[in-house]
Amino acid sequence: MKLSHYIFSILALLFISSCDKIEGPYGQSGGTGPVGGDSIVQNVLLEDFTGHTCVACPNAHREASRLHDNYKERLVILAVHADFWATPYPVGAPKFTYDFRNPIATQIATDFNVIGQPFPKGMVNRMLNPGTTNQLVLDWAGWESKVDPWLNSLAKAGIEITPSYNAGNNMMSAEVKINVVTDLLDGVSLAVYFSEDSIVKWQKDNAGDIEFYVHNHVLRGSFNGMYGEDLGVLAAGTEITKTYSVALLPSDVRVDYVHLVGVLTNNITKEVIQVIEVKLN
Amino acid sequence: MTLRQSVFIISLLAISINAQQSYAQQGLNTSNFSGYFEANGQYYKADSAIDAPEVREKWLNNGFMVLNYNYGNLSAGIRYESYLNTLLGFDPSYKGNGITNRYVTYTSDLLTVTAGNFYEQFGSGLVFRSYWEPNLGLDNSLDGLKIVLRPRAGITLKGVIGRQRDFFTYPENIVRGIDGDFQLNDAIPGFENSKLRIGVGGSFVSKFQKDDKPSLKLPENVGAYAGRLNMQYGKIAFDAEYAYKINDPSQANLFTYNTGEALFTNLTYTQKGLGIRFSGKRVSNMDFRSDRSVTGTRLQINYLPAVNRQQTYRLATLYPFATQSLGEMGGSSEIYYSFKPNSTLGGQYGTTIMMNYAAVSDIDRKNLDDTLGYTSDFFAVGDDRYYQEVTFEVNKKISKKSKVIVSYLYQIYDREKLEGKTDERQVTSHLGVIEYTYKFTSKKSIRFDIEHLATEQDRGNWAMFLVEFSMAPHWTLTAFDEWNYGNKDSDKQFHYYNGSINYVKDGTRLSVSYARQRAGLLCVGGVCRFVPASNGISFTVSSRF
Question: Hey, what domains does chain A have and what are their CATH numbers?
Answer without folding.
Answer: 40-279 (2.60.40.10)
